[in-house]
Amino acid sequence: MKRKYILPLLFLVQIIALKIIRFFPEYVELFYSNGIYVYISKFSRIVLGKIPFSVGDCIYFILIVFALKWFWTKRKSWTLEWKNNILSILSVLSVFYFFFHFLWALNYYREPLFEKMNIERDYTDADLLAFTKKLITKTNTIQSQITKNDSLKVTFPYSQNQVFEMNQNGYKNLSKKYAFFTYSHLSIKKSLFSLPLTYMGFSGYLNPFTNEAQVNDLGPMYSFPMTTNHEMAHQMGYASESECNFIGFMSSINNDDLYIQYSGYSMALRYCLNNWQVRNENTFDQLLKTVHPGILKNYKESRDFWEEYQTPIETGFHAFYDRFLKINQQKDGMDSYSKFVNLMVNYYKVRPL
């Protein structure tokens, strides 16, 4: 067989293999997520964690430049060499596809957190209402403790780099309850692509090749700790967006610092209120009246920020990412982010908030 066909064929083999692997989540959990991946992720974070800038973003930039240059040089000869060019593209995709899954993305096929933590999947409107009311009480209390005035929004006194360091405390406390949420070797970076990420409508992402947590550093600070904790959960090998929101929430509220607790509670409350806005407008209006005006000002701050950068680009990238998530074992696509409400409601149904 000619060499140029090997990598494209391996690309096809990988796709078929993943179709089979999804039926064996317990083996992925045992041998990859709690085995090989543990060493891969720790090695990456130890090597790159102390570097002050995002190595992954730099690699992406270089690759984009090379790709554009390649397409530019091939533009005139594309018709004559289309077969070889397509084989070249498939070969590159084959290599990336392999490293994407080997270095991180096989975690998409691990056991769901619902099963790992014995949490029910379904809940009733009564369950959601009870949880939302508890969440409002808790968020109101912390907002009052911080501001001493229920009409003032929470303004963070910490820098983003301080938040990166402080977030480790929440995971340390959480790991005392669940050892599988142990986090080590900090490797969180402010993304060099924060402005493009904002136009795309994203607060952060994990680089699967370098295991660096990339956080958009342009958004409101009140949501920054929760967003960072979400990306840290991805680093630990949790691929599901709903699970990372849930883990990020638990890490935030288990932090010793009130501001970071507020980030977790207020973000979770916003998801629950959004849920009610869709389910029952009257209930949503009644619940909103019991939320402190200062908290609503934080929500407005966030809404104003994202609306300022809203363009058709965001819609396009969300559609692309929605499809990407559905291909990778998250059938709800972009809606997966809000599905962590299921985890919260059922987890705290039998536990104090």
Describe the structure.
With 353 residues, the chain is mainly alpha-helical. The chain folds into two domains: 3-109, no CATH class; 113-347, no CATH class. 65% of the residues lie in helices and 3% in strands. It has helices at residues 3-21, 25-48, 55-74, 82-103, 113-116, 125-147, 160-175, 194-200, 224-235, 241-253, 258-279, 281-288, 293-308, 312-327, 340-347; strands spanning 188-190, 204-207, 212-215. A three-stranded mixed beta sheet has the order 1-3-2. Strand 2 (204-207) and strand 3 form a beta hairpin. The radius of gyration is 22 Å and the shape is globular. The N and C termini lie far apart (62 Å). The mean pLDDT is 91.
Short description:
65% of the residues lie in helices and 3% in strands. The chain is mainly α and 353 residues long. Helix 7 packs across helix 9 (224-235).
Treating each run of at least 4 consecutive H or I residues as one helix, how many helices?
15
Q: What amount of the residues lies in strands?
A: under 5%
Bin the helical content. Answer: 55-70%
Give the overall average pLDDT: 91
Radius of gyration: 22 Å
Main β-sheet, in a few words?
A: 3 strands, mixed
> Going across the major beta sheet, what is the strand order?
1-3-2
Q: Into how many domains do the coordinates divide? A: 2
* Total beta strands: 3
Order of helices and strands: HHHHHHHEHEEHHHHHHH
Q: What form results from the Cα inertia axes?
A: globular
Helix and strand content put the structural class at: mainly alpha
